[in-house]
Design a protein that fits this description.
This protein is an all-alpha fold and about 250 residues long. The protein is built from 14 helices and two strands; from the N terminus they run H-H-H-H-E-H-H-E-H-H-H-H-H-H-H-H. A two-stranded antiparallel ribbon has the order 1-2.
């Protein structure tokens, strides 16, 4: 068997950009396809050409909702309506993850081409029928964590996540699974607007790890010696103000 040379991060970035120059796809899609081909640019190019060659159904479905080159606003509302789901249903985030969409509130034509192929569907009726199965898949923590991580880049502005968007994602994704999130979102809402800062990637990811590791009563939370972000320490102090005084905050 031929040995595959491991590429450096810089080499991977160059290949992703090279593929994007050839084909109208986003960075996530380029990276996924290159991974499938063990970073073979020609094979990746051929996969995309093959997808485009059998994309009639996906393109037809895309045109139902698109205005120009994108599905946005009313198109997304109509798409969700045809799927029988609410705009705030977290399953739309799993669908966006499967499509490897790049921006929240938008779908491109290739998002539909790529996503229809990934999910092995031919139209929105097929996708609607698939939703119960997608919900079961979404319950798996490995899948859930991947979607949660994806949502940071999906919704970020520049390098961080707007505070209100992070609130919305925590409410949509984490609150139904982790009872502690009710109190956590109360804490988030109570932070004065002038003190609110964009949420960094590290903080966003650590909120999920906090939910998984700490549980609902915070007895496992080590606010003295732990390596949690200050944002989470402050939630502990919100719940237990006396601990803040013991730490020397007056």
């Amino acid at each position: 068997m031929r040995n595959i040379q491991k590429l450096s991060q810089a080499q991977e970035i160059i290949m992703v950009k090279d593929l994007q120059r050839i084909m109208p796809i986003n960075e996530l899609q380029a990276r996924e396809i290159l991974l499938q081909t063990q970073w073979n640019l020609q094979r990746a190019n051929n996969i995309i050409l093959d997808l485009q060659g059998k994309s009639h159904n996906a393109e037809e479905q895309f045109r139902k909702y698109a205005k120009g080159d994108l599905i946005e606003d009313q198109g997304i509302i109509n798409f969700c309506k045809d799927l029988g789901i609410d705009l705030m249903d977290p399953i739309i985030l799993y669908i966006s993850f499967s499509f490897k969409a790049e921006r929240m509130g938008q779908f491109t034509k290739f998002d539909f081409i790529y996503g229809f192929n990934q999910l092995k569907i031919v139209d929105t009726i097929d996708l609607r029928n698939r939703i119960p199965k997608l919900r079961e898949e979404f319950k798996k923590m490995e899948v859930f964590k991947s979607v949660y991580k994806f949502c940071f880049d999906f919704a970020k502005e520049k390098k961080d996540l707007p505070y209100e968007i992070a609130q919305g994602l925590w409410d949509t994704l984490l609150k139904p699974l982790f009872p502690i999130m009710g109190k956590f979102l109360e804490y988030v809402e109570n932070i004065p607007e002038k003190s609110r800062q964009p949420i960094t990637r590290d903080t966003y990811l650590m909120v999920l790890e906090f939910c998984v590791q700490i549980g609902n009563d915070l007895t496992k939370y080590d606010y003295k010696n732990g390596a949690w972000p200050i944002f989470l320490d402050n939630f502990y102090y919100f719940m237990f103000p006396e601990a803040k005084n013991q730490q020397g905050y007056y």
